[in-house]
Design a protein that fits this description.
The complex is a heterodimer of chains A (172) and B (439).
Chain A (H helix, E strand, L loop, with lengths): L1 H41 L11 E5 L9 E11 L2 E12 L5 E3 L11 E3 L4 E3 L6 E2 L5 E3 L8 E2 L1 E4 L2 E4 L14
Antiparallel strand pairs in A: 1-11, 2-3, 3-4, 4-9, 5-6, 6-7, 7-8, 10-11
Chain B lengths: L14 H4 L2 H19 L10 H10 L4 H28 L2 H4 L1 H22 L5 H15 L5 H9 L6 H29 L6 H21 L24 H9 L4 H25 L3 H32 L1 H19 L5 E2 L17 H6 L1 H4 L6 E3 L2 E3 L13 H9 L19 H12 L4
Antiparallel strand pairs in B: 2-3
Helix pairs in contact in B: 2-4, 2-10, 3-4, 4-6, 4-10, 6-9, 6-12, 7-8, 7-12, 11-13, 12-13, 17-18
The chains are: A alpha+beta (172), B mainly alpha (439).
Chain lengths: 172, 439
Amino acid sequence: MTQMNTDKNLTDKSRRSFLQLLPLGVFAGVLVSIGGAAFRFLRPRLNAPSDQWLDVATLSELTGPQPIAKKVLAEHVSGWVITSEEHNVFVLPAKNNQVLSPICPHEGCEVFWEQARNRFACPCHASFFTADGARISGPARRGLDSLPTRVQDGKLQVQYHVASEQDGATQA
Amino acid sequence: MSRPADSVSHESSVWPWLQTTGGIVAALLLVQLLTGVLLAFYYVPSVDHAHTTVSYIEKVVSSGSWLRSLHHYGSQWLALFAFAHVARLFWNEAYAYRKAHWVAAVVLLLLVMAAAGTGYSLPWDARAFFSTRVAEGLLGGLPFVGRYARLWLLGGSDISTITLSRFFALHVLVTPFVILAVVAWRVFRVHCWSNLNRNAIVGGVVFVALAIWCWKFPAPLGPAVETATADYLPRPGTQFLWLYETLKHVPGAVGSIVGVVLPGVGLVILASLPWLRARRRLIASKLIGGVLLGAFAVWAMTMTVAANLSDRRDARTREQLARQAQQESQWRSEPFTPVKLPSSVASAQTANSAEPPALYVKFCADCHGQHGQGARRGNVTFPPLLGVSAKPRRTVEDIVGLLKDPPAYGLQPPMRSFADKLSEPQMRELAQWIVNLKR
């Protein structure tokens, strides 16, 4: 008889424990259902690198030993909008019109050309690069990235990509 | 006098399960809160982007359509169960024995309807635009305060992107916090956790039912305001069908009384029932509350059924609604197209910079400004025409029709007809110039 009472008490106790957890279980169920969808909902959407060829300049404009700063107008699909953004690039006429990205591979600031010292300088964390983009000093671990180029109808064209420090090399 | 409201004895084993409206309301509030936060990650409250961002959520973002549907249908279910919760508490005489519980439920019903009303405009499809227009008319028709209420609601003299921002702020920053405050107040004021397990079970079942419903039936999204055709028939969500149908049968400003004043007064009276009881008028409280809740339930159900029947019985309406459903279905099957920001169109040659035609200068510029920017004379504000083509029923054809017969397009004096002053080609020339005016 005592054994039966003990069993009944244990059953009641586990039933009560289960019932106490039920509201929490339902709450967790709603959270998990919506949370699962939320994970997919908020997942970042990666854009494929643009394959647009952007006009830089006519070949006749690109002469001289110094890097030449030019602007290119690129269209970006950003979520639900298409935006046009102007980007700086540096053309190296002395290096067969190689085009350098202005993005410092350290933290992504835009470098500028220091005419007097014949070098590129990053205004943010003092990284320096030679006239052909090789690293001189500073926290950047590599040189400036080269961008893919081609010549079409007498114009130099470029594909504008942004590479980060983690990429290690230019995305092309 | 200390009888707990939820402990009215009933022998039926079904009865305790009918006492779980609070659990359902809590589950639906949780769903609304979570999905609302998620939708805000993509939604942009501006007339230029609202519809596009909602389309993006529907078509591009993973699980976007389901989450939006949860939010859309959840608001309709919430309105229904918030009312059922008030009715259930009334049945239990909560107004007499659990005042805080009762007042919280009535205020919650008001807030849920306010949240639904402000949220309804946010997708900025043609349906949302017209519902905003109706809200404007309802507030504008209120006695004494109508003019100011309308201006404060719109944030200006006409519906604009400011209006949408206001609705967005009210929807996501004001009502949710007030709702949370009311819920918190109710939880801490009334330490009542009876029937918790049944509440949880029923709340969970309702959530599963809602989730399945949303998976099967995506939330509707009408055409963007600027692409809606003149024959588009806007229909409100289920929770507002009673109001929509009622407004068909009442003239002008009476709509404001029926749509705003009466429900408001009704809710105030319901919330006041505990104090009527304190004056030893229990029977009066019961009678007043019963009549109010019963009358509203019968009225809402009758009008909702009538609205559905009215649409089904009229062949032209039925065909048009079927056509709209087909167009929406086709729109869903098309891929999402990103929009170009106006600033990115390098050579955007808008009419703003061009000289206005002589006809415009002669007949329109005095009121609407030399370049359609609008004007103000004394107390009269003349609306700008910039971006007018983004509004529904403002195509070239519509503007020609409007110039002939302004009242047919809802315009009141001082806008007058130009039917006797301008020929059809002249009106068309003017309309062509006006629709190209960009903001």
